[in-house]
Amino acid sequence: MAVTPVRVGLVGLGNSGWYYHAEQNLVPARAAGQLDLVAVCDADPARAATAADRFGARAHTDWRELVAGSAGDDGGVELVVVALPHHLHRDVVIGALRAGRHVHVEKPMATSVADADAMLSAARAAGRQLSVHQQRRWEPDFQQVLRLVHEGAVGPVRRVEVHRSHAGRYRTAGDGTPHTGSDIATWTEEADTGGGAGWLIGPHPVDQVLQLLGTPTAVTGTAHRPPGSAVEDHLRIHLAFGQRDGGSSARIDVHRRAEHPAPRFRVVGERGDITSEDGTSVVVRDADGAVVVVHDGLEPPGRLGAELYASLAASLRGGPPVAVTGEQGRDVVDVLERALRAAR
Ligand SMILES: NC(=O)c1ccc[n+]([C@@H]2O[C@H](COP(=O)([O-])OP(=O)(O)OC[C@H]3O[C@@H](n4cnc5c(N)ncnc54)[C@H](O)[C@@H]3O)[C@@H](O)[C@H]2O)c1
């Protein structure tokens, strides 16, 4: 039986909204009959109009207009995708939920647990679904690492190390490509708009570590804030995970300066270790350091999202629960808030 595509409204048409959501996911999902991008919104009228033309959707400059009206079969939006600067997530997510829409919000869901909890309460009160765009959970090397850890390939995990860097300042979208604009996205360099390496880069590796090791029992952090800067350009997060089998820990480094070589993932287990240097291969060594398995030829981590969007579309049409829930997004916010507080 043919399934009606989920009607989507996209709020925020910058790097993420325009490219990572519309171009890379919503256009293919429309072709696949999963989702239909019917409305777009950006505070910049020219951007909204150009996007509406390109994506065959109606244009808005105020998100309240996009969520107004009925969510029924008359073309109203069922799912709102929020791809706005961090400090704007809360009000738009809660407003859309209260208007009866499901919401898929970019990472980090919020920049405080209090805001994340307010969003979750609004979703429960409205009986609507709230999910978070943690699409990097599907990075090919991470999927291998996750499978190997869960299969016990190196025994109980002692330590996990993750490095992630986005070198340079955060640029706005350019013509045809993300992050190539002539302007700096100033909200990423200010504290009260949720800027800094922690909130910008941290959600992906934090989500991955929580997938690997579960709920941490302790979180702390240290940061480097360059002189004259309002926000950190490096955050190191330390997580502890209980005392079972002697306990395990994780260290996550996110930074705005590439550091080479820094393996993307390293998992040290009781009986060996697992390493992904650059994302194209995952190597398992035994406790003596001998290579026992190599998974190579992996697709380097790209922009991703197809798996998450497929899960999202299915979940809204009676399929299994969405792969990244609002509760999981809240757990990521909790870790980052605690690490950043400790690093102050
Ligand atoms: N998941 C990922 O891999 C990934 C990658 C990049 C960005 N992001 C996330 O996406 C979100 C947005 O980041 P970005 O890089 O696209 O930012 P951006 O600065 O490139 O774009 C933000 C857009 O929002 C618009 N805007 C601002 N205020 C608005 C309002 N009140 N109403 C409507 N539109 C408004 C701006 O005009 C701009 O077009 C952030 O949460 C960021 O962390 C996620």
From TrEMBL:
Name of this chain's protein: Gfo/Idh/MocA family oxidoreductase
Q: What is the originating organism of this protein?
A: Quadrisphaera setariae
Gfo/Idh/MocA-like oxidoreductase N-terminal domain mapped to chain residues? 6-133
Query: Would you say which domain of life the source belongs to?
Result: Bacteria
A GO term, aspect molecular function: nucleotide binding
**Pfam families (alphabetical):** GFO_IDH_MocA, GFO_IDH_MocA_C3
Question: Taking every annotated instance into account, which residue ranges of this chain make up the domain GFO/IDH/MocA-like oxidoreductase?
Answer: 142-274
